[in-house]
Amino acid sequence: MSSTGEPSIFTRIAAREIPATIVAETDRIIAFNDIAPQAPVHIVITPKTSQYSNVVELAAGDPGLLVELVEVANAVAATVSNGQFRLVFNTGAAVGQTVFHVHAHLLAPQTAAGTLGEGTLGFR
């Protein structure tokens, strides 16, 4: 739940209340294209549970779920970017976290020849 007690946008996407282009899904994880991509490939990967607001809470509370999230990221990247990717977790509003339901941003070049540029976070 969000701080307002309402389900997060990611909970609503997982429940199919809000449309999204889903690229991968397990019983506990969902991955979908970001609606405002910051790289040629920009996929949000999140647990379906809203129990954890950030990656630190997830790692402490359910490390196995964090492992599953990374495994899904790796499988998606194998399909969309020859296994090359960045996995970014924002933890806190000051660094850009806007949805307080733990999630990762998978950022990758469109092809093996593409690049996100060394020294960047893949943002335009």
Keywords:
3 helices, five-stranded antiparallel β-sheet, 5 strands, alpha+beta, 25% helix, HIT family, subunit A, 124 residues, single chain, disordered C terminus
Summarize the structure in words.
With 124 residues, this protein is α+β, with helices and mostly antiparallel strands. The chain has one domain: HIT-like (HIT family, subunit A). 25% of the residues lie in helices and 19% in strands. The chain has helices at 9-14, 55-61, 63-80, and strands spanning 22-25, 29-33, 41-47, 86-88, 104-108. A 5-stranded antiparallel β-sheet has the order 1-2-3-5-4, covered by helices on one side. Strand 1 (22-25) and strand 2 form a beta hairpin. Helix 2 (55-61) packs across helix 3. The radius of gyration is 14 Å and the shape is globular. Residues 120-124 have low confidence and may be disordered.
Summarize the structure.
The chain contains 3 helices and 5 strands, in the order H-E-E-E-H-H-E-E.
Q: Overall pLDDT, averaged?
A: 89
Portion in strands: 15-25%
CATH architecture: 2-Layer Sandwich
Unreliable runs: 120-124
Q: Work out the helix count.
A: 3
Strand order of the largest sheet: 1-2-3-5-4
The end-to-end distance, rounded to whole angstroms, is: 31 Å
The structure class reads: alpha+beta
Q: What is the general shape? A: globular
Using only CA atoms, what is the Rg?
A: 14 Å
Relevant CATH superfamily: HIT-like
The biggest beta sheet is recorded as: 5 strands, antiparallel
CATH class, anyone?
Answer: Alpha Beta
CATH topology: HIT family, subunit A
Helix proportion:
25-40%
